[in-house]
Amino acid sequence: MKTTGKLLATILLSTFLGVQLFAGNYEVDNSKSTVKWTGKKVTGQHNGTIDFKSGSLEVKDNKIEGGTFKIDMTTIENADIKDESSKQKLEGHLKSDDFFSVDKYPVSTLVVKKVQHKSGNDYSFTGDLTIKGVTHPVSFTAEVTIGNDRLVSGGVIEVDRTLYDVRYGSGKFFDNLGDNMIYDTFTLDFNVVATETSGTAMLETK
């Protein structure tokens, strides 16, 4: 009886002081999540994929509060070149010091700092993106759905590579590039699938 009484008192206190929120952590499913990159140049463009290394999201009351994502830079692949030799040449160049210095910096990181609801399932995100050991803020929008212990989110991040010391072929730093100029901005089209790993009930006062 005492235990029942304490439980009832806790429920009544929660109702009186505020609302009971559910806080949980969601872990990114690397096998189901994707990142597609696109880089453009004067004469065309290239695209491909890159894999998540790990990721987690903090969720409260079915809303994202923050998160951390790690990208495995060693997995950069090209998808549009059919000739295997040319494909491997481009992939090796992207991994070299001309671009992402993968041997020195095998992991890039995005830390979500702020999330704002826009409308429906659309949210705006602000966070810190670290590439080649250099960190700069980024902002982007994404669609998010949460339910049945599963979170799915998709969106596009535009990145100015020159901010992260990736200057090869940039018109900002080299003259007379002509058709060899590579545009500074590349895009990351992501689709994140995450599953709930833990959760706790939290009391929020009014």
TrEMBL record:
Question: Which domain of life does this protein belong to?
Answer: Bacteria
Q: Where is the signal peptide?
A: 1-23
Against Gene3D superfamilies, the record matches this protein to: Lipid/polyisoprenoid-binding, YceI-like
Keywords tagged on the record: Signal
Q: Name one Pfam family in it.
A: YceI
Q: Does the keyword Aminoacyl-tRNA synthetase apply?
A: no
**Which positions are tagged coiled coil?**
none
Cited InterPro entries? Lipid/polyisoprenoid-bd_YceI (IPR007372), TTHA0802/YceI-like_sf (IPR036761)
Question: Which residue ranges does the record assign to the Lipid/polyisoprenoid-binding YceI-like domain?
Answer: 25-195
Keyword Signal applies: yes
PANTHER family, alphabetized: PROTEIN YCEI (PTHR34406)
Q: What is this protein called?
A: Polyisoprenoid-binding protein YceI
Q: Which organism is it from?
A: Tangfeifania diversioriginum
